[in-house]
Write a sequence for this structure.
């Protein structure tokens, strides 16, 4: 009998995206014994294919989702403090198109946006002359009036990793590449079957099961419950393209379209611009890919505003993710609520409950986790109180929150390392960059250089500390170095993992 069958976990979480890792972190910090199961890599699906923003959702005001916007704006402040190395302020320029939305409506919306969430650190919105200032860099000359407001951007995959690390350090058992094979209620507990590397079955036991499986949430819920639930899920594909940089400056653009949707153009990874997203209802959500129609849609909207319109041949990378939105009956995919909905099945006589997570957005993941634990509080009377609001994420404990000062301290400690190398490690690991660098003095101390800012020492760290097992894990989730490396260099990363660790 496996040792795992001797352990009874308080909480088994299915899904290693932002919601699953956020719940695991919160629960572990409250003293619960937690196991998390992810069938692939952490953040391998929806959570790493976002627009990479921490934002209130300006357009949600048009759908009267004031509670969601207010909560998102408040969380924006919390997350900026918790992880200043992977979350940073970003200003957005909205070029005015009078035939789409009148100026008074935009001003009213921005006034609400400035005040709903208790803004503290980011500047208030203001209007600008696009024709005579750098705020209009890269736009067609016909645009004269614009509005500037602030939100933040995030390295979404690294946010997931940071939550998983914190959960593990607080006692959670994080199991990647471990799919849920089956689960059933038995004698007041969940008996959960997973594959065992030796080939035989492995069984876990848990008091509560949390279904945070993203696009698969409805499928998992129906398989685990005696009867299919009434809840529905809308699978909405969002696709993005990455092209060579289309405008100067560090601000982003938010572009309006005649279909009432908006598209972001965001400076990305120094040399590039990220353009997205689409909203397409899909039935097949296992391996989403961008379609030619989506590429044309994004290029057309960007082309209506930009002086040098991107064309499909400019695309250096594209990605698609499927958002599992709670079905609120909206006919328009863009109008389906982005709010989260938690569905609790209390189980047999109040034992072995199942909590399923529908919807949600990266910005509100921490509040979602708090709410999930509140829903389960009755099953854990000795559980500690909420704690994540003021607690930094791993690497985010920058003294006084001053990242620029910490950057100077890192430069003083590692003066010979190239600036771009130190900056990349700071942005990926925050204060934990020193754990990776150790006593290194030159890049030679970091081992083989695979290109861009990626060295063998960091790959070894990803394997030892961050569950990395493949070149894709390293190049597209732990880092975005895949954008900057040649195919030959990317293959070398895979070969290194095979030769050093036997990972394919």
């Amino acid at each position: 009998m496996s040792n795992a069958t001797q352990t009874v976990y308080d909480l088994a979480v299915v899904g290693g995206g932002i919601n699953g890792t956020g719940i695991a972190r919160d629960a572990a910090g409250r003293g619960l014994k937690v196991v998390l199961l992810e069938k692939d890599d952490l953040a391998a699906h929806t959570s790493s294919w976002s627009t990479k923003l921490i934002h209130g959702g300006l357009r949600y005001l048009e759908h009267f989702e004031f509670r969601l916007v207010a909560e998102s704006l408040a969380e924006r402040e919390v997350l900026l403090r918790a992880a200043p190395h992977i979350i940073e302020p970003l200003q957005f320029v909205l070029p005015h198109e009078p035939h789409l939305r009148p100026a008074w409506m935009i001003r009213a919306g921005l006034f609400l946006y400035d005040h709903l969430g208790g803004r503290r650190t980011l500047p208030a919105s203001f209007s600008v002359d696009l024709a005579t200032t750098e705020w209009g860099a890269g736009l067609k000359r016909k645009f004269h009036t614009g509005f500037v407001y602030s939100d933040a951007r995030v390295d979404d995959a690294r946010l997931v990793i940071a939550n998983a690390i914190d959960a593990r350090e607080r006692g959670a058992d994080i199991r990647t590449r471990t799919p849920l094979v089956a689960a059933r209620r038995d004698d007041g507990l969940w008996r959960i079957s997973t594959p065992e590397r030796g080939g035989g079955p492995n069984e876990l036991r848990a008091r509560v099961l949390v279904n945070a499986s993203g696009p698969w949430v409805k499928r998992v819920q129906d398989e685990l419950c005696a009867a299919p639930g009434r809840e529905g899920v809308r699978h909405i594909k969002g696709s993005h393209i990455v092209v060579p940089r289309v405008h100067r400056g560090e601000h982003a653009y938010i572009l309006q379209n005649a279909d009432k949707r908006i598209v972001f153009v965001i400076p990305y990874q120094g040399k590039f611009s990220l353009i997205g997203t689409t909203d397409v209802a899909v039935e097949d959500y296992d391996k989403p890919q961008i379609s030619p129609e989506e590429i044309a849609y994004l290029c057309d909207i960007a082309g209506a505003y930009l002086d040098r319109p991107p064309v499909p041949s400019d695309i250096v990378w594209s990605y698609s993710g499927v958002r599992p939105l709670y079905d609120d009956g909206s006919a328009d995919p863009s109008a389906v609520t982005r709010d989260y909905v938690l569905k609790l099945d209390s189980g047999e006589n109040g034992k072995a409950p199942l909590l399923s997570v529908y919807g949600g957005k990266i910005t509100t993941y921490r509040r979602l986790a708090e709410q999930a634990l509140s829903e389960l509080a009755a099953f854990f009377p000795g559980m500690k109180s909420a704690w994540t609001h003021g607690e930094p994420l791993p690497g985010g404990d920058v003294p006084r929150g001053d990242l620029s000062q910490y950057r100077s301290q890192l430069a003083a400690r590692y003066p010979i390392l190239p600036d771009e190398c130190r900056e990349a490690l700071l942005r990926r690991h925050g204060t934990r960059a020193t754990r990776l660098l150790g006593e290194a003095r030159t890049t030679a101390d970091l081992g083989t250089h695979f290109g861009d800012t990626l060295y063998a020492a960091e790959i070894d760290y990803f394997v030892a500390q961050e569950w990395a097992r493949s070149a894709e894990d390293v190049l597209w989730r732990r880092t975005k170095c895949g954008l900057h490396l040649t195919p030959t260099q990317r293959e070398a990363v895979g070969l290194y993992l095979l030769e050093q660790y036997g990972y394919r």
Q: What stands out?
A: The radius of gyration is 23 Å.
